[in-house]
Amino acid sequence: MTQLFLTRWQRLLPVLFAAFLLLGSSGCAMVTVKQVKSGDSLVNKRADVLNTGKLSPAARETLSAAGLDESQCEKDFLVCRSTLLMTDDLNVEQRLSALSELWVKAALAMTSKKTAAGDPPMSDAALDAWLEAARYAYAYLFYSGRSPSDRAFEDRQTQVRDYYNYAAEKAAVVLFVRARAAALAGEDYTKPLTVGSWSLASNYQQLGLKSIPAQLVPAGTVSFVGLRSTYRRDGFGAELVMVMDPPKLVAPVIAPDGPKAETAQDDEDDERRGRRHRHDDSVPEFSEMSSINVTALLRFEGSSLEDVMRTRRVELDAYSPEATERITLHGEQVPLAGNFTAAYGLWLAQSGFARQSLRTLFGMSEGIGEPHIYLMQPWDPNRRIIFMLHGLASSPEAWVNLANEIMGDPELRQQFQVWQVYYPTNAPIALNRYEIANAFNDTLKRFDPNGSTRASKDMVYIGHSMGGVLARLLVSDSGDVLWNDLLANYDLKGERLKRVQSKLGPLLHFKAQPNVERAIFIAAPHQGTDIAGNKVGRLIGRLVRLPLTILGKFEDVFMALAQAEQQVDGTAKPKIPNSIDNLKASDPFVKAAAQLPIEAGLKYHSIIAQRKPELPVEKSDDGLVPYWSAHLPGALSEKVIISGHSVQETPQAVLEVRRILHRDIDDMGTGSR
Q1: Taking the model in full, what pTM does it have?
Q2: 566-576: per-residue pLDDT in tens?
């Protein structure tokens, strides 16, 4: 009996095994576990077509739900697209986000990765793909049933926003190139362009352009050596830099066989007209940066999902991210993206300041002969002015990181606009103070003739090295101190006195600049420096040459002084002092200027560098400026930083300036003066 039972089971085993295999393959598949590192899990979740070239997990899941996969869509994109549109079981957000990513992938395949000049322009098919990618992302963000704020913490919305921003960037550059070509041909650059079945208009009114821009550069495609940080704001829109005509340096000094000296009548005419002396009146006293930050949006016409998906009309809107933080779009408050470093970096990289500033110091051709004011952002009447003055043999490049940090700080950017001066650092300090004050005041009057805006009030001056000396003189009142000091050394009477007074009087008599609320002096030799008078300083001083514009205007005055009877020793022949002469601790001008009173009520701060930390602060220096010269009694704060003379570049100095400026905002907010 047992044997019979076993025989029957033996006969059934093959049948049962076959049935088991059949059941296992049809409905009882085994699930296994594969360990994934937590870091890899996050990377995989965030991966998408922009950072890996492959579709995101969210897009692949959507394709799978529609019976598709990525390889099928690569082979026949149109069929893939049609299938997604006709699959009813997909929700709107899944469909729109997946289609936006698929269009990005298609557009990337049609867009050249090369960016060199002379590359063929983007094809109409590629532009169409980028516009479709932006359209589906736009529809997802604003017409998919939930508002962007409802999805604020969702990774998928961040990805789709990136698809829109990247597509807007690509489309904006192409539209700009075509609009510029039309403008150069004499057409209206805002006139809608036709590309395939699309009608594309451009709106640059928010930027207040004064001429046809030369280039539109994606901010993400440039990086800078020498800038510690890149400051930007996440949000909606493409981050771009609009480059105007190539930046022009301050008008160069004409080489030694250049202009003749001006006559006394020329000078009197200038004074009568209330104008400062300039060797070329066709050159403006100020420039706005030739590069400006731009945030570009693509708006698709329509007030419903159906409208947006049908429309072929798009408008490119350009905004200044400094001036506009958010806009209302389809009933939503939308924060705009912004890059606050790229334009500044491009401007400095193209400026040529470094070479020209050295040529200026040594009186070579192509140096500069007079100050020039640069606005780091488009003029804003509602933001207070920070005015920066660089030091000897330097230029606005000295402020690269400090200015970038100020413009990158959201609160400081909201409250302040940065102005810088570029001036000939070989010129006498008194002349530079006079010329800088006039250039600054003329520029301010150009933008605010009545001085009624917030920008014209409660300004902050920041000066480094010799720029700190100039900043101190700009906030001081000379009275008759400097003029009397001159008269004490020379016997000046009659026509000789009149001649000297007409030329040097305006330089030695001055009032503090109005409406300056605070000043920051950085490594400033207020009482001069012994180094300027030592062997090396004297050698450099002999190499410094004054421009012909200064020699031509003041040579006769110093000849008159030479002819005057000197009370001290009567033998030394006066010469026009250069900046190195003025920085000697023994120089009569700097000794007298150090005693001038700072404007009553002005708040001021000192930042001082100490090269050797082992020395007592009182006996220290920064390699050029001793502590005793940089120290100012009465300063609200004095920060000593272990550094060389270029202390303004250090993170510690930047943090201290930011601290002072934030404190200033707090003080102004409470009405404190």
Answers
A1: 0.85
A2: 544 555 566 77
